[in-house]
């Protein structure tokens, strides 16, 4: 039986006002329940946002989210401090203006060590759909030299290894094992 049939029967019995009151009450209860659910979800989202912000603002890594044009959309306190960005500025901030060598990281999909305000940082860009996650991690001199040596070594492997003899000239340990 559909609503029209129920309404027609109740009208014939003279109970249409009771039906109207019952439907109105049911609609109001549904609206109140939906409103409470929405408010509860909003509160949970705000709490999650506050917790995530507290965590991100207390790590030693500068973290930022860049849009497809490499404009910083959101960043933590550490990245703001590293780049000297005021948290209350809502202006257009393009990461290319702050870190000229970033184009290298974008083209090679690799991280690199850069110096900002006299400190060394490992810069990494992680693609995320049509945006990027920017990470700036503080490094010490040993880490910097290790990273640069590893990068140089990887470059050598890509450009110079054509046969086993090339490989043996780079790795003395392998040469001993093969002999």
Describe it:
It is a single chain. This protein folds into 3 domains: 3-53; 64-139, Beta-Lactamase, CATH 3.30.450; 141-179. A 5-stranded antiparallel β-sheet has the order 2-1-5-4-3. The chain is elongated and about 100 Å long. A hairpin with a 5-residue loop joins strand 1 (62-66) and strand 2. It has helices at 3-12, 16-56, 77-83, 95-98, 102-108, 141-160, 164-170, 172-178; strands spanning 62-66, 72-75, 112-116, 119-128, 131-138. The model has no long low-confidence stretch (mean pLDDT 76). The chain is an alpha+beta fold and 179 residues long. Helix 1 (3-12) packs antiparallel against helix 2 (16-56) and helix 7 crosses helix 8 (172-178). The longest helix is centred in the first third of the chain and has 41 residues, at 16-56.
Short description:
The chain is α+β, with helices and mostly antiparallel strands and 179 residues long. Helix content is 58%, strand content 18%.
The shape is: elongated
Taken as a percent bin, the fraction of beta residues is: 15-25%
> What integer value in Å does the Rg equal?
31 Å
Count of DSSP E strands? 5
For the record, the CATH class of the largest domain is Alpha Beta
For the largest beta sheet, what order do the strands appear in spatially?
2-1-5-4-3
List the keywords.
single chain; 179 residues; Beta-Lactamase; 58% helix; alpha+beta; 3 domains; elongated
Q: Topology, please?
A:
Layout: H1 3-12, H2 16-56, E1 62-66, E2 72-75, H3 77-83, H4 95-98, H5 102-108, E3 112-116, E4 119-128, E5 131-138, H6 141-160, H7 164-170, H8 172-178
Antiparallel strand pairs: 1-2, 1-5, 3-4, 4-5
């Amino acid at each position: 039986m559909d609503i029209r049939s129920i309404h027609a029967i109740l009208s014939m019995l003279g109970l249409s006002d009771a039906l109207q009151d019952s439907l109105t009450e049911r609609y109001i209860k549904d609206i109140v329940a939906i409103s409470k659910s929405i408010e509860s979800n909003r509160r949970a989202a705000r709490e999650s946002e506050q917790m995530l912000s507290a965590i991100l603002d207390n790590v030693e890594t500068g973290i930022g989210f860049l849009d497809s044009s490499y404009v910083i959309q959101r960043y933590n306190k550490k990245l703001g401090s590293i780049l000297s960005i005021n948290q209350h500025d809502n202006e257009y901030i393009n990461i290319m203006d702050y870190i000229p060598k970033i184009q290298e990281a974008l083209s090679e999909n690799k991280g690199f060590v850069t110096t900002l305000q006299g400190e060394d940082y490992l810069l990494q860009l992680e693609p995320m759909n049509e945006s990027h996650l920017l990470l700036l991690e503080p490094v010490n001199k040993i880490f910097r030299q290790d990273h640069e040596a590893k990068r140089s070594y990887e470059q050598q492997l890509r450009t110079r290894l054509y046969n086993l003899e090339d490989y043996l000239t780079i790795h003395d340990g392998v040469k001993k094992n093969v002999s």
